[in-house]
Specification:
Chain lengths: 119, 108
């Protein structure tokens, strides 16, 4: 059974860079059938797709965040990572990592991790 | 970007009743690339429907999806106690992927 687990600091200071890692277990991240993505959800609000990466390193991002986002993959560790720079309070959210097929439906999700931006 | 508008915002129903949730897109969703997710408090979303009408693995047949173009519907034929949750639609026909703001189905 495929499992995804987010990890990283729960508190980030304004203007700093948010860094999260997603560890994939029960399957290989190096599949040509899937992409790996990040989605976030501010408290009490809806879902926002941040971006996705293929095992080869090919990425695509939400234009609304593209200038601040970097997603990378480490196939040797079966992990992919998110960096979001210059964070503000508006970036406070639960961050989810998820697998999606080439089409774009997210069928496996991590449990999510709350990241609070505050001094 | 395609904006998805879900209605109603909240649906108050009793177990056993039928739930009809709407998702309207600001422009046509190509190839009916529209999905529905269920989210319960403190949990990640769960994929219910993809391709507008195909149930994901393990999803009970009381959940059904329909629609095309800009108008889509999720129907729960008879609400079970575990179905009270928030439901989101998502389009994946064009980048960026976008989600609606959700419909909360709560107990009347």
């Amino acid at each position: 059974q495929l499992q995804l687990q987010e990890s990283g600091p729960g508190l980030v200071k304004p203007s700093d860079t948010l860094s999260l890692t997603c560890t994939v277990s029960g399957g290989s991240i190096s599949s040509s059938d899937y992409y790996w993505g990040w989605i976030r959800q501010p408290p009490g609000k809806g879902l926002e797709w941040i971006g996705s990466i293929f095992y080869s390193g090919s990425t695509y991002y939400n234009p609304s965040l593209k200038s601040r986002v970097t997603i990378s993959v480490d196939t040797s560790k079966n992990q992919f990572s998110l960096k979001l720079s210059s964070v503000t309070a508006a970036d406070t959210a639960v961050y989810y990592c998820a697998k999606h097929n080439v089409g774009g439906t997210f069928d496996y999700w991590g449990q999510g991790t709350l990241v609070t931006v505050s001094s | 970007e395609i904006v998805l508008t879900q209605s109603p915002g909240t649906l108050s129903l009793s177990p056993g009743e039928r739930a009809t949730l709407s998702c309207r897109a600001s422009q046509s969703v190509s190839s009916s690339y529209l999905a529905w997710y269920q989210q319960k408090p403190g949990q990640a979303p769960r994929l219910l429907i993809y391709g507008a009408s195909s149930r994901a693995t393990g999803i009970p047949d009381r959940f059904s999806g329909s629609g095309s173009g800009t108008d889509f519907t999720l129907t729960i034929s008879r609400l079970e106690p575990e179905d009270f949750a928030v439901y989101y639609c998502q389009q994946y026909g064009s980048s960026p992927f976008t989600f609606g703001l959700g419909t909360k189905v709560d107990i009347k």
